[in-house]
Amino acid sequence: MTPDLALATDAVSRLLDELGPAISRDAVVAAVAQACDDLRGSPVGALPELVERLARVRLDQPTVGL
């Protein structure tokens, strides 16, 4: 787990609770990891919220989990 992803473990938990069994844990972890990579360089204090928002948007797309 990368340091950025370690900071986003709360986001993974919240998204899993919010989305329920419709999306796998692996898909949520992958979306959060990709969001961390994409947002690298953002202000550290804002990173957890930005990561969670970006991951949520990506997980809401109909092609996720197929």
Secondary structure layout plus pairing:
Elements lengths: L2 H5 L1 H11 L5 H14 L8 H13 L7
Helix pairs in contact: 2-3, 2-4, 3-4
Q: What does the average pLDDT come to?
A: 84
User: What oligomeric arrangement do these chains adopt?
Assistant: single chain
In angstroms, what is the radius of gyration? 11 Å
Order of helices and strands: HHHH
Question: What fraction strand?
Answer: under 5%
Helical residue percent band: 55-70%
Q: Can you describe what's shown?
A:
There is one protein chain. By secondary structure, this protein is mostly helical. It contains four helices and no strands. Helix 2 (9-19) packs across helix 3 and helix 2 (9-19) runs parallel beside helix 4. The longest helix has 14 residues, at 25-38. The protein is globular. The model has no long low-confidence stretch (mean pLDDT 84).
Features:
66 residues; mainly alpha
Short description:
By secondary structure, the protein is mainly α. It has helices spanning 3-7, 9-19, 25-38, 47-59.
